[in-house]
Structures are given as C-alpha cells and as structure tokens.
Amino acid sequence: CQPVPKPESRVEVCDLNPCPPRWKVTPAGPCSSSCGLGLAVQLVTCVQILHGQEVLQEEHLCPVAEKPLTSVPCVVRTCSYEWSFSEWSECSTSCGNGIQTRQDFCLSSLTHKPVNPLFCRRFPKAIVVRGCSAGPCPEQEGTLSPGAELQPVTPATHLTAAAAATEHRHKDLDVPLEQTKPGGGEESTAKRSFLRVCGNLFLNATGIINMTGVESRDCTVAIGRPLREEISVTILESSLNCTAGEVLLFSGRMMWRTGCRKLPLSLINSRTNTLIVKQRVVLPGNGVILQYSSRTATKKYYQDCDQQLFGPQGEIVNPVQLPDERQGVVCRTFITVAPRQRVSIRALKTDLGPEGNHTHFNYILVRDVSTMKTVVFRGKQQFLWQSTGSQAEIEFHE
C-alpha cells in the first residue's frame, strides 16, 4: 500500500447506549464452619457501566431471576460428630410409673459445640425417654398391671399380600410404581411418567429419570432397592442455572451432597439402598436427566435382622433374636414411600414385658428421618404415629 496515500487515523463512537445493569459478585468470605459443611457470605450488587465507570444501581433494575446467592455452601475439611445428652429429668409422676426425658445434642468433635442433628444421623443414638417409678400410689397398692393376657406376636416381617402383588406386577416396568394404572397404553403411561416424575418412588434396578421441564419449583424423587444393595447415579444432562440459585441435592442414610456446577457425567454413590434426589429450579424448563443403577453394596451398612419396606402398606412384626446372635443387637425396619406421601404406623398389639420398679424396659423407637425426631413406645402401649416426611425408621430394643 506504500504508493497509496495513507488516511489519517481516528476513533469514532459507535454506540452511545449504555449496557444494561448486571449483577456483580465479590469473592466469598470465610466459611462459617471450621470443619464439615458451612456457609460463606458473598456480596451481590447491581451495577452498570456508565462512561467507563462502574455505577451502583438499585437491585430491581437487574434481572431478579438471575440474582446469585448471597450465601454459598463451603466445606473446609471433613470432621466427625457424636451424640451428647443432658441430664435425665425428674420422674413425671410423684407416685406410680412415669417417664424421664433428656435432651440430645449433635456435637462436633473438633469444636465441641452443637451442630445440626443431620450431621449425626448416621450414628446410633441412645434413648431419650425411659421409664421410672416413684413408688406405688396409695390407691394402686395390691393391683395387677392391666393387659397381662396379651400374647406375644409371631416372628415375621413382610409386606401384605396386596402390597406384594402390586410390587410383583410393576417390578419389570421402567416407571415409578405409584404411577402405573390399568389401561391407557404405553404412550399414555409414558406421558404420565414424564408429567408426574416429581414426588415418585423408583424401585427398578436401573432406569432414567427426566427432571427437565417440570412445572414445580421443587421436584423430589426417591430411588429404592432391597437391603444389601447400593445405588449409583450418573447425571447425563444438566441445564441448571447456578447463578440463579438452582441446585441439586442428594441425600441418603449415610451421605448428603449438593451441587450445580460441573454436574454432567458426575457420579454419585448412595452407599445404602435408598437415595432421595431433590431439584430446585428458578427458570422454567431447566433441570437434569439422571441414569441410575444398583449393585451389591461394597460395605455392610445393615444388620441381618434389619428389614426394608417400600409400601404402599405393610405389616411389621418384631423380629425375635436368635440364640447364637450377640446380645444387645438392635433390629431395625426402614420404611421409604414416595416423596409426595407420608407414613402412618399403628400398633395393633404390643407386649414389651411387665412394667415394674425399673428404669429400663424393652421399647420400640420410631424415628422421623426428615426431622430426625424420635418417639419411644414401651410396655403395653398402643399408638398411632405419623411422619412429616416420606421416610421412617423403627428400632426394636430388647
């Protein structure tokens, strides 16, 4: 180009319209917990570039649905936890049989401070209610305890015939057990499966769960397999918007994990035979597609007398301890139903031994897994118990 006259260089403004306001996130501060899961606070502001300068704007000018979280999960390092208890209260009665209670706390072994009880959920907990006696009441002297004619129940734990037949009919279908209905054809069944994936329980050995395009903000599914198995989940696709606060939560009896970024092709292992998956979305159409499978558990997380029930209904009979088993073993029954359902347990007949001037009795402990609250039943007490979530555990203490 040397023979051609070179024009003068100049700069022209190409656009005078400012860029729209956007969210600005400062690096997160220190983690609130010295070990385990905690929260870190990050400053989120609405800013706009005007004349080359960053100007602070009111928050409503930025997209509300895209606002990042002000608190984000953080993990410094793994730490262990243990149950601790307060002193026993005084006996609830001034005479006759009563109860004593004590408060339980989940403590961090590093800080020796109370933390959320969920951190201790995998550790066995001693009783928080026990019987006590303040001596016979004057009007009760010489009387016998009622209910002595009750007979002990037979040793068995099983589903009712109706529940077992329902489970057999659906064991080969790749749709949740609660979704299938007679008639409608394969096309309508698949359509119902897609539209009603949220709140369902999947019992097949393998399957694919599509949680994209669901209408609800929170979508929860459960996967269940027999004891002695564990579940592995691979995330095939994810369209979650992490900056908008969308997240995926996995929870089981021995694991708890959340995530949003780098989800595709990641692998999650339940370590037990049940897994709850909860998805929270903000923007319509977002979600994940999961593929799950089951295998024999690598470590034994159960006892030989433990049982697993998936419903929709069943009968539980206290298992009898065999002579060659070690003393003090606690037999448990795990109940898992669809996340949209709740559990009711009704005692038809109980006889846990005579009640007398002792502080320890045989007893039944029922635990609500979602809140980790426990209730103790003893003696010849009949009861009706209802859960707040879709999982319950029963322990038979002898």
UniProtKB/TrEMBL annotation:
Highest taxon in the source lineage: Eukaryota
Location relative to the cell: Secreted
Key words, A-Z: Secreted
Main subcellular localisation: secreted
InterPro entries: ADAMTS_ADAMTS-like, Sperma_CUB_dom_sf, TSP1_rpt, TSP1_rpt_sf
Record-linked SUPFAM superfamilies: Spermadhesin, CUB domain, TSP-1 type 1 repeat
GO CC aspect terms: extracellular region
SMART domains attached to this UniProt entry: TSP1
Protein name (database record): ATS13 metalloproteinase
